[in-house]
Hints:
Chain B: InterPro entries: Ig-like_fold. The complex is a heterodimer. Chain A has helices at residues 4-10, 12-19, 27-50, 57-60, 63-95, 102-111, 114-130, 144-155, 158-185, 190-211. Chain A is mostly helical. Chain B has helices at 2-21, 345-376, and strands spanning 23-31, 34-35, 40-49, 55-63, 68-70, 80-81, 86-95, 100-102, 105-110, 115-119, 122-124, 130-135, 146-153, 160-168, 172-175, 179-184, 189-198, 202-212, 215-225, 236-246, 249-258, 265-271, 276-277, 283-286, 294-302, 308-316, 322-330. In chain B, strands 1-3-7-5 form a 4-stranded antiparallel β-sheet. In chain B, strands 6-4-9-10 form a 4-stranded antiparallel β-sheet. The interface between A and B is large, with 39 and 32 residues.
Amino acid sequence: MSHWIVDLLLNPDAFFRERAGQEAGLKFPLLFVLLAGLAAAPGAYTMVGIMGPLLPPEAQSFLWIGGVIAALFSLIGTIFIFILFVIVFHLLSAVLRGVGDIKKSFEAVGYGFLPMVLGYVLSSVAILYYAPSIVLPQVDPTTPAGAEAFGQAIASSPMTMMSAILGILFILWSANIWIFGMRHARSLTLRNAAITVGVPVGIYIIIQIWSLGVL
Amino acid sequence: MVFLFLLPTTAAAVNGEENAARVTVLGFQTDPALLMPGDEATVTVTIKNTAEESVPISSARLYTEKNVAVINNPYQTFGALGPGNEATFTFRVKASLNEGTFYPVFVLDFRDAGSLRYPVPVKVDGTEPRFSVTSRPDSFVRDKKEIVRVSVSNPRAGPINGVSVVPSGQSLEVTPTSAFIGALEPDQAGEVTFNITPAEETDLVFTLRYRNGDNQRDIEVPLPIVFSEDKKRAEIVVSGVEVTAEGGHYRANGDVTNTGLEVAKAVVITTGDPAVPVDPNQVYPVASLDPDDLANFDVTFKVENATEVPLVIDYKDADGNTYSTTVMIGVKATLPTGGEGEGQSFPITAVVLILVVAVIAGAVIFRSWKKAKENEK
């Protein structure tokens, strides 16, 4: 008899099979989403700090406000992604003849955010650790050319690459949980559950890779 | 009786000699007054009959001396010179190549008496006019107009006429093409100015032309034009260069300073091969830089597989001559690198971490699917 978190991570099929007949519990799923958002917040705060030298001296004393706003946006963004995935998975599973309460979809997707908590922690640590090594161009970021140059410098930095790759790996891990979660939440075949989760996540990963300029 | 017949004749002969003795040389003149070796000149001798009777003259001759050849002797016959009258005899002579004072002899043959011999001094001096460059630039630069002043002086005892200076040479632009000074009396000097624009290293030859009497003479004085660095010219020094990568190209900015002594006009900065200048600052114009002035620049360029690129600075001098200076600027050194002491470890750490996560995630996914199959059974 192993801990339920171990089961969730290593044997999600058994984890969700056990909860299939139970009432959906959102306490832990929402906690995981919240933790993921909070784990991403330090990284977002640090990224704003990187831009400090480009701002006028009088604006630099208010840089922390920008950092806090960025941290809040990362938290809100994580919740938004959670809701987006739930809706997309639910609708897609409905197309594939899935049945079940949307609350169970929320539960399944929320549990799947557990690996992303770890992923965001690692990404934030990477950003905190390597951010000082980024050399940004001395340009005016308010001009189109400057903004492009600035964005490219950040996107092409090893730190950003590392963060993105970790994000992709952990979302694959989450997707694995979501497949079994949606299978039991929506009474899908394993194949249809894989399609339900695989298509949106695949698109999401492609978008992530494209934003890195690889594609 | 015979004596009586001879008496008038004898008396006449005595009178002729007395009268001839009273013919004197009033003066002589050579033109030019001072000959140069090989010059032709005219020798003029003036005589006067101070007797009260006419003196018959057979001929007037100037005899060639060793160093002064008489070219013509037009007075092979002559009539009588009336009482109180003067006569002038002009002869053409040519000096040898020797210098000194020579004395061709003027001989006046009287019909009723002997002759009058008078050595005429003819001075020959080889001293030539002096030509000197009084002002020239410290150095000549290709296609740059420079002023050259030359002076002509006359150290001779006699005047020279029609003095002019004509500069010439290959690949040279000279204004004016010649300069006229005119006559120069002894110990006088004249100065003329030329604008010289050399296209390549050459010999600038000044031809000094003058006349000594009727004798046209030339002296050629070469002035080698050798290019060297203009000590006063503007010199552009580049400092504080910072190259940053942005938006798919590089941006180089820094300062340019004129450390020369002359103004640098129309300063334009760009990058050279292998760099390709790109917008927004393919070239960067800087206003004129006075000596010790400083201005900043900002150029944008693209380059691949290069660690440094040439920064090309073009500028002009006050005469419009264009100069170019090239400075190499590093590119690779300014590319983004890791933090202090972590440039090497960062990628390795990242790769290791990513691999570990990938392996763990892969193993977990594999295990979960394996378990799922077991759960089906």
